[in-house]
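Re: weekly structure request thread

Next one in the queue (214 aa):
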Amino acid sequence: MALAAARVIVFDLDGTLIDSDAVKTRAYFDIFPPAAAPAVEDAIRADRYENRFDRIARILRTVGGGAEPARAEVERLAKAYNDICEAHQSACAERPGASRILEKLAAARPVYLCSGTWEESLLRVVRARGWQRHFRAVYGGPRRKADNLERVAGDSGAVPGSILVVGDTKDDLEAARAKGCGFAGVRSGSTDFDPATVDMLEDLEALSEVLRRG
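Done, posted below.
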């Protein structure tokens, strides 16, 4: 897909619009005692994209000698994790040009947000940052990103080939490819795909110039 042909834009949040990836990783260490750090490290390495409930349960099984953790304990720690992340996501630095590009694009075409952050929390983050007016809809977990791209297509009425996903990780890239959408990469500390294999944006505001050619 030529980027200039995009009629609908879908942004990831963490690492794409805001500098929050490192905190989302560190928060797992914050909710467990220092002695659990090796188990936390192993869980993160085992599956980078595992949801918080499953990852916390994995860590608890490791530190508990394989015993299945109580659901209430998993939920307590998941809430503590979410509180740390949400506070940071609401106030941390945005990626350069994020607010400006959202303002420009939303005036011309439908713009959506798709994130792995739980949807109710994601909505609060967007409101805290004053970005709600830019997005036609905000979609998050527990749905997978690929499933949320289906929601974008259904809500916008756009064919997948006219939808452009902007993200910084393989999770974003694979979701876009699975649904036949275009993809533009933004480099961050969490980028885990080969930049040589995708269209990369020098910065977020470069997207405006690319789309103007369409």
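The first strand starts at residue 8 and ends at 11. The mean pLDDT is 94.
Next request, please.
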